[in-house]
Amino acid sequence: MAWFDHEGCSLHYEEYGHGTPLILIHGLGSSSQDWELQIPVLARHYRLIVVDVRGHGRSDKPRERYSIQGFTFDLLALIEHLNLPPAHVVGLSMGGMIAFQLAVDEPGLVKSLCIVNSAPEVKVRSADDYWQWAKRWSLARLLSLATIGKALGDRLFPKPHQADLRRKMAERWAKNDKRAYLASFDAIVGWGVQEQLSRITCPTLVISADHDYTPVAQKEIYVKLLPDARLVVIEDSRHATPLDQPEVFNATLLDFLKTVETTTQDH
């Protein structure tokens, strides 16, 4: 366990293993704990850095407005703090947005990109978009985090054998700081870098669950906008793919990273 300070905010991260740096960024309302099924596997091959985004996990939760750009500045500060060479960057959901922002702003720092169940923008365009966000926004404010965590657990892990995952989700979600959770939720809406995707020239792997919140077709659209990207769909999975399909997820990611490493050595 380690901490570093950025703009008066103490941010928590963990390091494992040796080799090329590999950074994992969690999603909204989550923390570095949610990579528990990846850490032992990935740390055998890479210098693994797992972060708690500002407002999440063991990082400070300052009372202020959050933004994806601000989360990205925190990540940049960590990269500088650790004096990292170009790193492989993996982001899940909101973490994918931070990863996209980093790759657009500082392409030289990103060796490869892996985006999991995420998108390069969250723009409210249609009446239906507005209704969906208004509903989620209102529920996030009205319900307790324990209630949200239980509902999410039931939705993400609906199978009888996933009881342990449901319990963990409910427990972890309840520990969130409500104000920080809502500030992070607000940071997502209206954000986007879709117009700048051509700047991301590093190898990119987009992973989508077949039952993610947003359809696979939406990922197919933005994958075409990335200069060097491919899409892998993981079957029988929902939004938390690293937790509900860890073996397939880990194998898919390692296979991609190995290809990137081999290709860069050849040049």
Overview of this protein structure:
With 267 residues, the protein is an alpha/beta fold. The protein has a single domain (2-266), classed as 3-Layer(aba) Sandwich (Rossmann fold), CATH 3.40.50.1820. The protein has helices at residues 39-42, 68-81, 94-105, 127-142, 145-156, 163-174, 178-188, 216-223, 241-244, 246-266; strands at 2-6, 9-16, 21-25, 47-51, 87-92, 110-116, 204-209, 229-234. Strands 1-2-4-3-5-6-7-8 form an eight-stranded mixed beta sheet, sandwiched between helices. A hairpin with a 2-residue loop joins strand 1 (2-6) and strand 2 (9-16). The longest helix has 21 residues, at 246-266. It is globular. The mean pLDDT is 95. Keywords: Hydrolase. Its EC number is 3.1.1.24. It comes from Pseudomonas antarctica. Residues 21-244 form the AB hydrolase-1 domain. One of its GO terms (cellular component) is membrane.
